[in-house]
Amino acid sequence: MKIRELFSKPINRPINGVIKADQRDAESVWQELDEYVVTKQLTEYFRRFFDAYLAAADSPNDPVLAARMGVWVSGFFGSGKSHFIKILSYLLENIEAIHPQTGEPRRASAFFDEHKIKDSMLLADIQRAVRGSADVILFNIDAKADSKDERDVILQVFLRVFNEKLGFSGDAPHIAHMERYLVEKGAYDAFRQAFEQSNGSPWEAERDAVDFLRDDVVHSLAVALKQSEASAGQWFDRSRDEYRINIESFAKLVRDYLATKPAGHRIIFLVDEVGQFIGDNTQLMLTLQTITEQLGTATQGRAWVIVTSQEDIDAALGEANKSKSQDFSKIQGRFHTRLSLASSNTDEVIGERLLAKTEDAHQALRGAFEKSGDIINNQLAFVGNSVNLRGYKDGTEFVAVYPYAPFQFTLLQKIFESIRKVGATGKHLSRGERSLLDAFQSATVRNMDHDVGLLIPLYDFYPSIESFIDTVAKRSIDTAPDNGALEAYDVLLLKALFLIRYIGDIVKPNVDNLATLCVDRIDTDKLALKRKIQESLARLEQQRLVSRNGDLWFFLTNEERDVAREIGNVEVSSAEKARLLCELLFDDILQGSTRIRHRDTKGDYDINRLLDGAPYKNANHELTVEIVSPLGDDWDLLSDAKAVLRSSEGNGRALIRLAEGERFDIELTLYRQIEKYIDSPKASNATPSLRTILLNRKDENRERRSRLREQLSSMLLQGDFYALGQRIELKSSNPTSLLDELGNYLITNTYTKLGYLKHRNPDPIAEIRAILQADEISQRKLALGGEEGNPLALAELREFLQLKASNSRVILDEVVNRFTGIPWGWKPEWEVVLLIARLFMAGEIKLMMDSADLEPRAAVEPLTKSARFKQVSLLKRKVADAETLKKARKLHQELFSSLPPEDEDGLVAATRSRLAGWQSELKGFAPLAASKHHPGLAVIDGATTLIGKQLAIADSFEFVEALVKGRDSWLDLADDAHDVTSFYKTQRPTWQRLLDALERYADNRDALEKDIKAAVALGTLESIRDNPTPWGVVSQIEPLIATVDAINEALAQGKREHALLSIDAKIAEVVQALDAAHADAPLRNRALLKLQEFKTKLAGLTSIPKIFYLQDQAGDALDIAMAMIDASTPVVQPARAAENGAKDTAIKTTPAAVAPKPSKLLRPAELAGKTYLETEDEVDAYLIRLKGELLKAIQAGQRVRLQ
Questions:
Q1: Residue 349 has pLDDT above 90, yes or no
Q2: pLDDT tens, 485-513?
Q3: Burial 718-754 (b: 16+ CB within 10 A, else e)
C-alpha cells in the first residue's frame, strides 16, 4: 500500500493552508466552512465567546456586560487564530456560501451541525446568535495600515474599514466625511448622478483619484446641495486640511450609524495580527485599548472588537508590562474574553483535515503498530532535555498521525516560530503566508508514492519554507549539492540542522537526537543511522558547514562559516594550552587550593602544583602534587613503573596521571582559538551581524569551558594516583575531596614525626604569651610536664639544641623552619615556638636578641611575630658539676635550714622559691623601715637587691654558679636578714614604746636632766634609738622607761599642785565678784567656764611647760571673767544719786553698784632688766621700778594683776 492510498481524501487536493482575512472567493469560503475542524478546545472557546456575546445581547442596558465587548485571541504560529476569527465572522454575519461545483447555497450556521459540534447547547446558542443582524468587518491590520509610525494609525485603520463597510471612501477620510454628509442631507444620489453626467464614469470608480477631478466634484456638490460652485469649491479645497478625527468622534460615528439600525443590530470589528502589528509600541496598545473602551461606552456594547495576536496579551505588550501596570489593567479590562489557542488544537486539525484514514488504512496501520509498537517508539526516543517530545501513546494515535510522529506537530510549530523570531525568513512567513497545515501536506505529497512503513523525517519539511528563507541564511544549503566533498545525505542532514538551529532548548542537536529526527522508516536500523550521521557530520564539519560544541552540532550560515574558518586559522601555542589547562584544573576545578589541611592535626600544608613537569605559580614548598595530562609529552610513555619512580623523586611528591579524554585537546584548542578571535581587533570593529555571531560563540565558549571542567573532573577522578614511590587507590566523589585524600596521605607519610606533637593548642600564640608572662616558679616548671607539654616533641627539640646550640647560637627562624619541615611537619609554626618558650621558661635555653639576653616578658613580642624570628637566637644552657651542686645544696641548707633536691633543676627551683619568699617578706618590712627612727632599711635594700639579681638569672647553670660564688655574702645576708625579720616580727612593739616615751619626755627635758639618774636613763634610751643595729639592746628599753617615768611624774606633781592652787584662787576671786554683782546663773557659767576647763586639763598633765602655760592662761581667763562681770553690772552716776538721796533712802533695799576698774597685767620679771639680781643695789633698783609701775596703774584707776 502506498502512502497516497491511506487517506480518506486525496492528499494532493487543493487546501487553503493559509487563512487570509481578505480572501472571500466562493471556493475558499466553502472549503473553510466545510473543512473547519471544531476540536474540544475550540468547542470551549466558542462556548466562552457566545456566552459573552449573548449575555450582552440579552441585557443591553447592563453597563458591566456592555463593557465586555473586547475579545483577545492569542496563540503561537500556526495555531489557527486567523481561521478561528474568520469562522466567527462567517457565523456572526451568517453569510451564504456557494458550492463551487454544484452551486448549492448554504448559510454559514448550517455547516455547524451535530457532526461538527457535539455540544447541543452551543449549537443552540450559535443558532440564536445568527438570528440577530450584524455588520461584520474582518481585516488584517497590517494590510490596511499606511504606516506604523503615525501616532493614530490604528484609529485611521478602524475609520477606513468602517467607511468601506458603509460604502464610503476608505483611502480619503475627508471624502468619506463628505459622502456621509451628503447621505444625511439626502443628496448623495443626486451627487453621484451629477458626477457621472459630468465625468462620464461612476463616482465609486473615480473617487480614489478625486484630487485630479476637482471641477467634476465641485460641480456635482453645487448641483446636489443647490449652492454656488464658488462655495462648493471653497469647501472642497479646505476639506482635506480641515478634516480632523479622534477616537471619541469615531465612536460617535459608529454610535450614530447604529442608531439608524434596529435595536439588536451590532457592528463587529475583527482585527487579525494586531499583536504583531503593535509589537512593543505601548502607544499603539493604549490607542487600541482606548478605541475599544470608547466604542463600548458610546454604543452600550453594540460594537465589538475581536483581535488576534501571535502570543498572549502580556507578550504583545513587551516591556510595557513592567512600566505601565495601570494601563495594563485597563487594557485587560477592555478585552474581557481572552482565548489562547494551544498547539494541541493544531494536532487535531491537521489530523482530521489532512491525515484522516480509510478503513483499510486503519486496519493495516493498527496491525503494524500492534506488531512493532515498542520498536517504533524506541526509534523515536530522544535523549537529554527533550522529554516533552514523545512517541505514540497507542495504536489509535499511530493511525491518526501516521506517517508523522506525534512530536513533529509541536516541533514544527516551534521551528516556524523560532525562525520567524530570529529573522532568518522573509516577510511572508512572518505574516503567516505559510501554515503548519500546508507544511504537513507538502511533506506528505512529496512522499505519497512511497510504500507504507515510511516515516517522514524532519528534513522533508524544509522545502515548505525554503522559498521564504532569506538568501543569505540558506546560501550554504543551496551551494552544498555542488560541493564534491559532500554526499547527497549530507545536504539532507544540513537541512535538518538548519530547522532545529534555534530551538536548542526543545531538542539538543546531538547525534542520538539527530538520528531520531531523521528516522525515515519504522524499521530503520538506528545504530547504522547514527554511524551514517556521524560520518556525515564529520564531512560537514570539514567543510565548515556545521560547528561542534561538545556533543552538540549546529548549522552555520555563510557568515558563521567565515568566522569558523578564521577561528580555525588562529594559532594556539602549547604554552597557551598548558596555561589554560592549569587554570581549569587548579583554579576552577580545585578552586585555587594551594594548601591542604591535615585531618588529624588540623595543620595547613602548602603544596607545589605542577602540570606536566612545569610549576604553576609559586612552587617553593616541600610538598608537591604533579598532574600529568594527555597534552604532555610524557603521558603516553608514563608506565606504572615510571610513575612510581617519578613519585619517589625528592621528598613529599604525589603524582596524578589523568585518564584519557575524548576530543579533549581539540576542545581545549578550539576554546582558546575562539577566545583569541573574540579579543582580536577585527572583533572589536565588528558589524552588527558579526557581533551577534561573536556573542553566540562567546556563549558557546562559556558552555565549552563548563564542559571542559566536567570532562577534566572525570579525567581526574578516573586517573591513576602515586605518592612517595607507591601506587595508591583513591575513591572520591569530587576533585576537591580527591585532592584532600591524596594530600592527607602525602602529609601523613612524608612527615613521619608528625605524631610527636600529640597535644595542640587552639590558640598557640596566646599560650606563648601566657607562659612567658608567668611569674610563679611552679607555673614555669609545669610548662614542661604532662601530656600537654608534648614530651616527645620536647625531646626532639632538646636533642637538636644539644647538638647545635651548646657552643654557638642558633637562629629561631632556622629552628622553626627545621621542625615545620620534613620529617616533623609541626604546623602551625607557633607550635614549635611554643615548645621553645617552654624550654626557655624552664631555664634549659637562653634567648638572645641584639647580643643581649632576653627576659621572659621582653621575649613576648619577638616570639609572637614571625617577622622577628630571624632576630632571635637560642643557646643551650650549661649544667653544673657535682661538686658545685654539693656546695649549693649545703649553702641552701645553711640559709634555709632544709635540704633541697639533689638534681640541678630541683635545687634551682627550690632555691628560687625560698629566695622569692625571703625577698617578699623583706619587701613587706621596707615601708616601715624607711620611716624615721626605724632600723634595718639598708639591710633590707641590700638583701632584696642581691636576691633580685640572683632570681634574674634564668640559666640554671649560671644560677648555681652565682649562688656558690657568693656564699659568704649569702651567709652574712642570712644573719642580717634574720635580725631584721626578728626585730619587725617580735620587737617592734617595744621599739614603738621607746619612741613614744622619748617624745613624751621632750617637754620636761630640762627638769629631768637636773636629775642625774633620769639624765643617764634618757641618754641610754636615745643611744638605743639612734643605733642602726639595736637588735641586742632592745631588752634594756623597758627598765629605762620605767626609771624616767617615775622621776618625770615626781617633778610634774609639785608643779601641777601649785598651778591648781593658783587656779582655785582665781576661781574664788571670780565667784566673789559674781556674788557682789548679784550675777545670774548664765553669767556665772560663762565667767567660770574657762577656769574650770584649765583646772581639768591640769589634772592629767606631766609636761611642766604645759602646766606653766595653763597657769598663765588662767590669769587671762580671770581678766576675761572680770570684764564679763563688769559689763553686766549697771553703773550709777554720783551727782544724780545726791539729788535723789531722800527718795533713794526711802525705797532702796540694796546697795548701789560702783563702776568697775580696768585691770592691767604686770609681769615683775620683765622689770628686772636682767636675768639675775646679784647685789642689794640691784634689788633696791628693781623694787623701786616695780613700785613705780604699781602706783602708776593704781593712780590711773586700774587694777593690777601680777603674773
A1: no
A2: 999 999 999 999 999 988 888 889 999 99
A3: ebbbbbbeeebebeeeebeebbbbbbbbbbbebbeeb
Q: Which DSSP letter does residue 69 get?
A: -
Instruction: Kindly provide the b/e burial profile for residues 561-576, where b requires at least 16 CB atoms within 10 angstroms of the residue's own CB.
Output: bebbeebeeeebeeeb
Q: Among candidates 517, 560, 512, 570, which has minimal Cα distance to 540?
A: 560
Interatomic CA distance for residues 50 and 72, integer angstroms: 14
For 185, the 3-state DSSP assignment is: coil
String of DSSP letters for 1102-1123: --HHHHHHHHHHHHHHHHHHHH
Our separate counts of H helices and E strands in the chain read 56, 22
Q: Output the CA angle 683-687-689, nearest 5 degrees.
A: 105
User: How many whole angstroms separate alpha carbon 632 and alpha carbon 643?
Assistant: 14
Q: How far apart are CA 560 and CA 568, in angstroms?
A: 12
Rounded-to-integer distance, Cα 289 and Cα 295, Å: 10
* Residue of 628, 620, 661, 622 whose CA lies nearest to 644: 628
Detail the DSSP E strand segments found in 772-844. Answer: 810-811
CA distance 818 to 820: 6
CB burial class (10 A; 0-12, 13-18, 19+) of residue 551? Answer: middle
Query: CB–CB of 343/413 below 8 Å?
Result: yes
What is the arithmetic mean of pLDDT over 969-998? Answer: 81
SS (H, E, C) 869-902: HHHEEEEECCCCCHHHHHHHHHHHHHHHCCCCCC
Quick check: 1060 and 1095 in contact, CB under 8 A?
A: yes
* Gap between the Cα atoms of 330 and 345, Å rounded: 30
d(CA 1119, CA 507): 134
> pLDDT tens, 353-386?
889 999 999 999 999 899 888 888 888 888 876 5
The rounded distance, in Å, linking the Cα atoms of 315 and 75 is: 11
Among 290, 276, 278, smallest CA distance to 320 is for 278
What pLDDT, on the 0 to 100 scale, is given for residue 148? 66
Taking the C-alpha atoms of residue 1203 and residue 1198, their distance in angstroms, rounded to an integer, is 16
Separation between Cα atoms, residue 638 and residue 644, nearest integer Å: 10
Q: Coil, strand or helix: which one is 754?
A: helix
Average pLDDT, the chain: 84
- The helix-helix angle for 343-353 and 407-422 (nearest 10°) equals 120
**What are 665-677's pLDDT values in tens digits?**
999 999 999 999 9
Mean pLDDT of the region 1172-1197: 78
How many residues belong to the chain?
1203
- All 3 cell numbers of residue 459? 528534513
Q: What DSSP character marks residue 425?
A: B
> At a CB cut-off of 8 Å and minimum separation 6, what does 910 contact?
892, 900, 901
d(CA 1164, CA 843): 85
pTM of the model: 0.57
796 vs 825: CA distance, rounded Å: 13
Q: Which residues contact 957 (CB under 8 A, 6 or more apart)?
A: 877, 878, 879, 880, 904
Dump the DSSP string for 283-324. Answer: HHHHHHHHHHHHHHHHHTT-EEEEEEESS-HHHHHTTHHHH-
Q: Rounded to the nearest 10 degrees, how much is the dihedral formed by the CA atoms of 1168, 1172, 1175, 1177?
A: -10
Residue 109 · residue 94 · CB < 8 Å:
yes
Rounded CA separation 1030/991 (Å): 10
For helices 81-93 and 40-58, angle between their N-to-C axes, nearest 10 degrees: 40
User: Which pLDDT belongs to residue 387?
Assistant: 54
Could you give the CA distance from residue 282 to residue 328 in angstroms, rounded to a whole number? 10
Contact yes or no for 518/493 (Cβ under 8 A): yes
